[in-house]
Amino acid sequence: RDDVESRGLGDVYKRQVPREDAKEIPIIAMTANAFEEDVKKCMEAGMNEHLAKPLEIERVIQAITEFCTRK
Length: 71
Fold this sequence. Notes:
Layout: E1 28-31, H1 36-44, E2 49-52, H2 57-69
Parallel strand pairs: 1-2
């Protein structure tokens, strides 16, 4: 389990973009923090999508497919 809470951070990582082309790499937050304010924090931190645990495999596949088909 690699989650914000399991690391004891208590807050969302900020997206750090070390290279200009890394801005194109989507980040999908997968966390047990599922309240509206948690989703908002993830999006403000630069995540592209928020999926709450327990994960629904259909939704994971849908999110990945959406990002893989964007140009």
